[in-house]
Structure formats: structure tokens, C-alpha cells
Amino acid sequence: MNDRRGQLPVLRTRFRLALLFALLLVPGTAGAFEIFGLRLFEDQADRDAAAVIADPQPYEVELTTGAEGELDAAIRGASALLADQNEPASGAAGLLAKARGDYRRITGALYGQGYYGGTINILVDGVEAARLPPDADLPDPAAVRVVIDPGPLFRFGAISIANRPPPAGADDQVESPEDYGLARGEVARSTVVAGAEQRLLEGWRQQGYAKASIANREVIADHRTNTVDVAITVDPDRRAAIGAVGVTGTEHMDPEFVRTQSGLQPGEEYDPDEIERARKRLSRLEVFRSLRLQAAEDIGPDGMLPYTIVVDERPLHRVGAGASWSSVDGIGVEGFWLHRNLMGRAERLRLDARIAGIGYPVETEEFDYMFGGTFTKPGIFTPDTDLVAAISAERTVVPTYVETSATVRAGLTHLLSDEVTLEGSAAYELAQFDDDFGTRVFSTASLFAGATFDNRDEPLDATEGYFVTGTVEPFYEFNRGNVGLRTTAEARTYFGFAEDDRFVLAGRLRAGLVLGPDLADIPPDRLFFAGGGGSVRGYGYRSLGVEGPDGTVTGGRYLLEASVEARMRINEEFGAVAFVDGGYVAADTFPGLEDLRLGAGVGLRYYTGLGPLRLDLAFPLNGRAGDPAYAIYAGIGQAF
């Protein structure tokens, strides 16, 4: 890279570039150059300038990059002067410190795009910022002019990698430099070199070499040929096995349980994937504010690598509340109280309460009520298996029936992998239903089995991946001596496109089937209904069912629902969606498409750290008499 005042002779530039590039890629190097998460070349003047607190110093910045497209965006994105121009600096010293930081940040941006012969000039009040003292007297506002000449584009020249990882399998071959992105003639981005080193180290670590490191690197740019030569030497060190596992930082947690729950077994060969699985297991306990698995500095003479699990526990208790609103279904409020660690092994007790269906005028007999408690005990049988027991009582008022019930359930949840979850449970429910069949009481025992595959990138706002789940629930109703079976399947998929997945096309398909006696002898909550915010928007919650000749609506044996959403992110804070939902419920025969109920609408999204806040306006496209003309829904997270 050229000096900020002009271009250096070729040999001197080659030397400085090799040194700078090495420092950029060495973890832990001290200094103030901020690239790859490191701060390089910090001197005392930098520290003194950053420490000075003075009167606010407003400034106006003009940035000329001499570039376009991706390079122009990278330079502008690296400039703190440009990003913070609407906020005054902390006096002249703060402004000059920010300018000196821009020399380094823009240099890193140019390297990242493959430009090593550029010139950077940052003029403050007409003087190069690097030459101004921290106590300079600047006008108000100060005029800042940033001029970048990126110079020529550099490409990779000679590439050499010593000690590449051996083949992982009998049919594999040693990877070539091209396999790591280091191909002669390709754009010499600094990020490609950093990525290649990480892949080399990861290749060794995947084969048990926990302390593999970069022993030597030479990265030299030749300004005569506009090429960058790269030579990397890897030191794999020795194979390692997991040694003794210690635990520090626990207050209420049992350290032995933490050690067991990690799943790390002393004596097993080191595997970075197993270390990551251990971290995820401990994170799922929801007990720790922070945790890390810290390896010892060196592998012992016996080939063992000890580990220490360092944790910081969260407060024992948590209280939360939420609310939802629909123009059709009214207001709902809910709250919970959580104890994270009842007996020192991350046992969780959560108490939930909910009131919903609050409309205007207020009619308390139309309210929904629910109160329940859930107990979860992790680490049953395996570190990936949880015992879950729950009890609840509720009153639910929907257009098709009123339910008053009490339920008790107990079962196991097992994480087969990061993407696959298995569930199994047994339950008993005593319920009274008031509907078009009259008042009926059901006493029902059931078994439940479910499996879920979920590889979405972000569950509350997915841009890619799939979600697939299936359930089977056989049940026996004691009062009538009936046996039945309820099964469901659902699939969701997401396709993001354009820059940063600005546009997302999302789809959902759900189907269900109930086998058993006549509809009048099946508990209504085992039958299928459709409609509402999580189903077919534009219709009342669970208002779509089987329509009788006298206009009555009951649940059905068959369910089919589908939704398509087109999502667009307008900016960092707001997004918009357009959607179409469809669904129908059938009794004993599957109906034709003429019975399909459709809803469509648009929505607004406000993005937060907890997920997008959702506001949807939906219209029934082929509504029946009595269906609303429109419906508005609000909630957290995308509709699916």
C-alpha cells in the first residue's frame, strides 16, 4: 500500500506490505489498525488523542473514492468520518483521531478488494490530518475532504502452501491452493488469504490436530507486475485427545452436572465439532449469561489436551409478558414466571397465564383463560434428552365451540442433531365442550410422537432453509370407548435473493387427518379447524370447519392449508410483505377446490433485535355470510 503522502519505491513498498499483511493475519497482534478484528500500529499519540475529551467539534465531510461499484461501497463503508458525519466529534483531538483511524480502515478496505497501490489523503481544513497536532485550532464546522486513489488492481502470482492437511478419507486427495481460493490470476483480496489460512487450520483440526497454527507466511506485492505472491507454512503440531475437563464460575449450578452435560469424554480424540456440540448443549440449558470452552495452552506429554468450562450464570428468576391483537379476535395478554435452576442441574419451572379474546364492548364471558406450569429437567439418559412435564387448565371461546378443560402431560424431547428433534409424550385431558352438538364431556388419554427438521438460518425471520414437522397422536376416549388417531404434517421453505437477501419468497403447506368414530364422538380439540393469524388470514380464529345444512360449523377430519408470502426489506428498520393464504376443512370426504377459502393481504414489518414486529391487513377473497370484511393482525416474528 502506498504511503498516505505518495507512492514509495517498489522495494520499500514490498517490505512494508509483507510486514503489514503478516500483522493483519496474526491473531493477538497489538495495535490500532482495525482489520480482521485486530488493532495494529497504535502509538502514544493515538491513545492520547482518543483520551482527550473536548467541546463538540462539528464537521462536514466530502469523500471522493475514484472508484465505483463494490470498491466504492467498501471504501465508504469503512470510513468512520462518513458514517458519523451527523454527530460532532469530541473536540479537535477526537476528529483527528477519527481521521487517523480512517487511514487504517480505508487501507484495510482497499486490501480487502485487492488494491495495494492506492493513495489516501484526508485533509482537515486543507491540511493532511496526519500532520495536525491533537490540539489544532479548527473552524466550526471543520471542512474534511477525503480523496482516495485506489491504484491498480492486484492479482495473485506465485502461490505456495507447505503442510497442507492430509486426505480425510481413502478416496480423497490433498487439496490444491486453488481449493483454498488461492489461484494464480485471481483478484488478490486480503480476505481470501485470511480465509485460506482458516481453512488450512480447520482441515488439520478436523483430523485431531488441536494446536495447528500458521508457522510462517510471506505476502509480498510487486508493484511492477501488480501481483501478490503468497507463501504459507502450517505447523500441525501433534494429535490430541480430550483431557481432564474442569468447570469454573458456577454459583448455583452443580459443576459435575455441567461437566457431564457437555458430553466431553476424556480420552476421546479431539474433534472441533464435538467441542462446538458441547458449547451448544450447555447454551441450551438457558442458565448461563456467558460460557466458553477453554483449551489448555499446550498438549500434555501424554497427548491429552485439558479443557476448562468457564461460565457466568444468569439470575435464577425471569418474568416476561406479551400481548397480541387482532381486529377479529380482540386483544390477548400473557405473562410468565421462570425459575432457571430449581435444584442445581438446570431444572426449569415455568408458570404461564393468558387472557385473550378481549374485545369492545367488554364481555367477560367471551374471554379465553389459561393457566399452566411446565417443568423441564435436562440431561435425562443423555445430555441431549430432556424430561418435560406440564399441567394446565383453560377456557377457550372460539366461533365453533367453548372448551373448559384440564390437561396433564409428560414426555421426552431428544435432540438427534442440530437440525433434528424427536418428541414423545403421554397425556390425559378432561374437557367439557359446548357447541352445536350440545354440552359434552370427554375423558381422553393420548400418546404423542413428533419429529422436526429445522435448518432455517433464523427462525423468527428466515431467509433460507427448510422447516418440516410431522406428528402422530393416537387417543382413547373413556366415556364412549372410542379409539382414534390424529396426524399432521407441515413444511415451510424460504428463498432469499438480491443483495443481502433483501427479497424473500416464503411458502408453507400443512395437512392433517383424523381417523376414528363419528365427528360427534370425537373431542372437538382433536378435530381440525382453520382461520386466523397462523392459518388463513382474513377469517376468524378457528372459524373455518365443516358447514352443516343448517349453517352450523364443526371440526373436520381433513385439513389442508397453504400460504405464500413475498417479503421485501425496505431498509434496516422496515419491511413489507404481500401474502395469499388458503385452506379448507372436510368431514368424511375430501372436498374439491371450490370449497377452498382464500385470504390475501399486505403487511408491515419493523425489525428489532428480538425479531420483526408484524402488522398484517388481510381480506377474505371468497368469504361467507358473517365473515369479516377485513382483519388486522399484530405480533412478533414473521407469520411463519
Commentary on this structure:
The chain has 8 helices and 30 strands. With 640 residues, it is of the alpha+beta class. It folds into 4 domains: 10-149, no CATH class; 155-235, membrane protein fhac (Ubiquitin-like (UB roll)), CATH 3.10.20.310; 241-313, membrane protein fhac (Ubiquitin-like (UB roll)), CATH 3.10.20.310; 317-636, Beta Barrel (Porin), CATH 2.40.160.50. It has a 16-stranded antiparallel β-barrel with strand order 13-14-15-16-17-18-19-20-21-22-23-26-27-28-29-30.
Question: Unreliable runs, pLDDT <50, ≥5 residues?
Answer: 1-54
Counting helices, strands and paired strands, the structural category is: alpha+beta
- The appropriate CATH architecture of the largest domain is Beta Barrel
Measured distance between first and last alpha carbons:
49 Å
Number of helices: 8
> Any idea how many domains?
4
CATH fold-level name of the largest domain? Porin
The CATH class of the largest domain, by name, is Mainly Beta
Q: How are the strands ordered across the major sheet?
A: 13-14-15-16-17-18-19-20-21-22-23-26-27-28-29-30
CATH superfamily of the largest domain: membrane protein fhac: a member of the omp85/tpsb transporter family
Largest sheet: 16 strands, antiparallel, barrel
Using the alpha-carbon principal axes, give the shape. Answer: globular
| Helical residue percent band | 10-25%
Number of strands: 30
**Radius of gyration from the CA trace?**
32 Å
